[in-house]
Amino acid sequence: MTHHILIVEDEPSIAELIAINLSHAGYEVERAMQTDIASALMKDRLPNLLILDWMLPGKSGVQFAKELRANDRTRGLPILMLTAKSEESDKVLGLDSGADDYVTKPFSPKELIARVKALLRRQTPIEDTGPLSVGPLKLDPSSHRVFAISSNLDPQPISLGPTEYRLLQFFMANPERVHSRTGLLDNVWGNEVYIEERTVDVHIKRLRAALAPLDCDRYIETVRGSGYRITKTPTQI
Ligand code: CA
Question: Which CATH number fits domain 132-230: 3.30.2320.80, 1.10.10.10, 1.20.58.480, 3.30.70.1350?
């Protein structure tokens, strides 16, 4: 299957560089100079991955990413953010807005392709675990859906971004055990690409925020100095 990638970048030379390299790597590429054009293209067809520049005329990449994450149709779309900013706080802000990964300009085309491949690989299931259940949380890998079950309500669906889904699936397949940040990076992100450990914390925060409305965030525990775990008997009330 040929993956379809949409590039939203207003600088023609950079958009061209990315498009040529992705085409050579076998991807089908579409380009938009700004977010309203990207929205129009995505109405017809959702890409497999979005490469999104931070600084754009009109709506910024950060704002656009937030909107895509708030929308059921585009919530699961993998987003790779491009930016000239390299401050650590900006990286966290970029990830907080809903991006799954982050590349700072100037970047080498080789690095960008490696990150695109890693992000698309993250879309494929970890392994066929069958339906998973921890406490009130149910995850069905075949339908890619997550529900919270409570005694007096119908199952409540939980919408997750692609990285958060994969993170939750890994936790639920390996419950009660403490996972270090490094271990999570290897198992959830794959170890082909260097990603900072702090990235894990950002996605844990996003996962908890998605679980919080159904009071399920407490099942993801922080184990101080060690990492994170999912437990069916949370200590926090
Ligand atoms: Ca720009």
Answer: 1.10.10.10
